[in-house]
Amino acid sequence: MRGRIIEVTNGPFTPMNWGKFLVQVPVEEWAYRSAVSGSSGPLLGEIGWGTNHIIVFDLQTMEGAAFEPGGVAAADLKKHRIHVCLLFEPFLEWLYDQVDVRDLDALPDHVHLPDTPMGLYGYRRPGVSA
Q: Which contiguous run of DSSP H or E holds residue 4?
């Protein structure tokens, strides 16, 4: 995996929310062949991953999920019941708008999203009921 930490803020000073995210993309993992399935193709492709999938991890809550940029961030987050900070969804929306999310070197170290909600605590996404 290759990763990049991106910090996100929504205010100039206090009160300000501060998100800390790790965006990861599989690199050498694409060469892995399953030791169990018997398939000759890469395991990630066999289980439905595309080369555009990314993992976004909230470093503060220690939770994250895999996403396929290009969708709707709110709907994609609804598929997961992850505990996130208030800036996770706005950051995911911003990330989806980037030209090539997999080009981690093109992404900044800091993103300022001034029109996002303020709050003291993160929350667990409601997700889809099992």
A: strand 2-9
Average pLDDT of 11-19?
76
Q: CA quadruple 85, 129, 93, 56: dihedral positive or negative?
A: positive
- What's the full length of the chain, in residues? 130
Is the N-terminal amide bond of 12 cis, ω within 30° of 0? no
> CA-to-CA distance for 89 and 73, rounded, in angstroms?
6
Record the pTM: 0.87
**pLDDT tens track for 85-118:** 889 999 999 999 998 998 999 999 999 998 887 6
Rounded Cα distance between 25 and 80, Å, is 19
Give all strands of the β-sheet with 110-112 in edge-to-edge order.
Answer: 63-67, 54-58, 18-25, 2-9, 110-112
